[in-house]
Amino acid sequence: MRGLARTARSAVIVMLALAYVLLAHYTNTSGKARGLGTIVALAPLLAAALSLAWHARLRLFMLGLFAAGCIALFAFRDALEHYTSWIYWGEHAGTQLALCALFGRTLGHGREPLCTGFARIVHGDLTPALERYTRQVTLAWVMFFAAMAATSSAIFFAAPLATWSAFSNFFTAPLIGLMFVVEYLVRRGLHPEMEHAHILDGVKLYWNAPAR
Fold it and tell me: Which end of the chain is more exposed for a tag (fewer CB within 10 A), N or C?
């Protein structure tokens, strides 16, 4: 039953994600339903802000700030409708840059690369060769997300909006998936002795570790 519930939950998440990207692409390119497009564009930011406010130490104060921000957005909704596509672009490119920074900051002197941390929690002690490899994987993700942000910006400013919307909504997830596949194939070729583990398992264990 637990496995069935997990499968059903995953299916619901995939369906909601697909519905969101389809709605985002429609509102971003059709020239209609601008009000709906603004709501859809702001939804991820509002959800993230609400989550941060809810988990903040000063919960009531932060929730009050969140409510005030929502009121301000509603008051300026007409002006925001003219910049809906810019909101979409800012979210997409900004997310790629944030992920680039997340991976990149762990490559500093004296710090453990993010992918090394994932691998260490899943597999235990790593050989020097695996430590070097996971550091290179972390660097590869830094370069990938930097390239995604640069590509997103280049297409947004140089190509029709429909082209950028298709790239951001329909190609981002497949490209990330392709990155995982390429990394897996390279890992199996270079380090066949390394036991395979799902990347999401590593992420969950990493962020649930006591040190976090």
Answer: N
Q: Residue 128, by phi and psi: left (phi above 0), alpha (psi -120 to 50) or beta?
A: alpha
Q: Which two tokens stand for residue 163?
A: 């082209």
- For 77, how many CA atoms within 13 A lie in the half-sphere containing its CB? 13
Write down the pTM of the prediction: 0.84
CB-hemisphere CA count at 13 Å for 130? 18
pLDDT in tens, 181-190: 999 888 888 8
From 8, 108, 94, select the one nearest 44 (Cα to Cα): 94
- What the block records as the tokens of 95 is 């997310």
Place of tokens 């060769």: 129
**78-122 pLDDT, tens per residue?**
888 888 899 999 999 999 999 999 999 999 888 999 988 888 887
Q: What per-residue confidence (pLDDT) applies to 139?
A: 96
Residue 195 confidence (pLDDT):
65
Q: Compute the average pLDDT of residues 5-31.
A: 83
Q: Which helix (H) or strand (E) holds 108?
A: none
Q: How many CB atoms lie within 10 A of CB 201?
A: 12
What letters, b where the CB count within 10 A reaches 16 and e where it falls short, cover 125-163? eeeeebbebbbebbebbbebbbebbebbbebbeeeeeee
32 burial level (CB within 10 Å; 0-12, 13-18, 19+):
exposed
